[in-house]
Design brief:
The chain has 323 residues and is of the alpha+beta class. The protein is 44% helix and 19% strand. It is built from eleven helices and nine strands.
Length: 323
């Protein structure tokens, strides 16, 4: 037995997003002839998802007229002014949610995305089904553990909507105007997490937060204790750690998927971080059968003559881009 076994809290975190969820309303509304909403302004830092489940309506948002048809999803952002009318002979029924998803001192990270004003939802029945799952969870929220289940249901629904919308983050200057130092870093982390499989240049990463590279590096290290590329490599290695244990994909394929252009450099970093090679880790996690299956898939990796322990040229170039 080791003299000083590791503590459980020394293990790398699997998830640490620090989100806070607030829901102002979530339900099915209208459906009667006299329904209307006179001009109002949405509470700052909130986002509303308004889905026309049955029939349509007319609305005006920030002075612009929109026609909402059955199956359309309208998205309102905090501060928007809006009003609604519908045909009393064909009453509207809507599925509407108003919420915020905070992180750090940012009250609603949803407002940092290019959310479209209106989209035609390709699968109205699927949207209805997922929305009703959340409403069912809210009905059970008074029971033990009910609030956690309701929160989880909202986050799962929201994740599905954002995935379907493919809403990118706003550009650094537009998104980060007036934000605190931590918010700059959180925004940059979200930007990088969505691009782990891509080559990330420090200047582009800094620009995503609206900062110059040198200042971005100092700020990032002050808030996280790690240099930006150190943090990025750790995220990529943690992703690779999970994929090696959960899939039969080749080591080289996983390296590329996690943003490492050179498999040799990836293996070297992985061994340094976890104390064993990617293949050794896979054998420990999955046993010899999956490890042998994945070994055959690694045959595409190039055999490169190396001088001493230096990287072959393509790997040196990749190392310069990544680290």
């Amino acid at each position: 037995m080791a003299a000083n076994p590791p503590h459980h809290h020394d293990w790398p975190l699997l998830l640490d997003d620090g989100f806070s969820l607030q829901v102002h309303w979530f339900g099915r509304f209208a459906g009667y002839p006299k329904w209307r909403i006179d001009r109002v302004r949405l509470t700052p830092h909130m986002v509303t998802f308004f889905f026309a489940e049955k029939s349509g309506c007319r609305c005006e948002v920030n002075g612009a007229s929109l026609q909402i048809a059955e199956g359309d999803l309208l998205i309102l952002r905090g501060g928007d002014e809006f009003e609604f009318r519908h045909d009393r002979h064909h009453p509207l029924t809507s599925l509407s949610a108003c919420l915020s998803l905070g992180q750090g001192s940012e009250p609603n990270v949803l407002l940092q995305r290019h959310l479209p004003r209106k989209v035609r939802w390709g699968d109205p029945e699927g949207y209805r089904t997922e929305f009703e799952k959340v409403m069912a969870a809210f009905r059970e929220s008074g029971r033990p553990g009910g609030t956690l289940r309701a929160s989880g249901a909202v986050l799962q629904w929201l994740g599905g909507v954002l995935s379907r919308l493919e809403a990118p983050l706003l550009s650094g200057g537009e998104a980060m105007r007036g934000r605190s130092a931590l918010d700059h870093v959180l925004h940059a982390q979200r930007w990088a997490n969505e691009r782990l499989g891509e080559v990330i240049m420090l200047r582009d990463w800094a620009a995503s937060a609206g900062l110059q590279p040198v200042y971005f590096g100092r700020l990032f290290k002050a808030e996280t204790g790690q240099a930006p590329m150190q943090w990025l490599n750790e995220r990529r290695l943690q992703l690779a750690h999970r994929l090696l244990g959960q899939t039969a994909r080749s080591v080289g394929g996983i390296a590329a998927e996690c943003g490492f252009a050179c498999p040799f450099y990836f293996s070297r970093l992985f061994r340094k971080r976890f104390g064993r090679s990617p293949s050794e880790h896979r054998k420990r996690q999955n046993g010899p059968e999956l490890a042998s299956n994945s070994s055959a898939a690694e045959a595409w990796l190039p055999t490169v003559k190396r001088d001493d322990d230096s990287f072959p040229r393509p790997c040196r170039e990749a190392q310069n881009l990544i680290a």
